[in-house]
Amino acid sequence: MTFAVQLWMLATPVIYLPAEQLGPRAQAVLPLNPVFGLVHAFRQAILDGELDQYGWYAFGISSAVSLCLLVVGCLYFRRVERGFADII
């Protein structure tokens, strides 16, 4: 699990590359990564001091994707809850 989290953080290019340097295609797809909006907003707050329009867009899309994944995960867990303890 720790390896997956490290890989996921490296797959979020805003950590090592500003979003402004990415192409328009990447700027449209990257907010689908739930971590991207949060990391981009934090980076903007630390470096620039304010969040631009793209930052709010990325934060909103990433938040919506995170909430959808939470709902899907909760529904899946409810479905397999009875046999879940037997598997682990």
List keywords for this structure.
88 residues; mainly alpha; 4 helices; 73% helix; elongated
Q: Beta-strand level of the residues, as a percent range? A: under 5%
| Major pleated sheet | none
Figure out the total of helices: 4
How many strands? 0
Give a verbal description of the structure.
The chain has 88 residues and is mostly helical. The chain contains four helices and no strands. It has a domain at 30-88. The model has no long low-confidence stretch (mean pLDDT 82). The chain is elongated, with a radius of gyration of 16 Å.
In brief, what are we looking at here?
Helix content is 73%, strand content 0%.
Break the fold down into its secondary structure elements and pairings.
Elements: H1 2-10, H2 24-29, H3 34-47, H4 53-87
Helix pairs in contact: 3-4
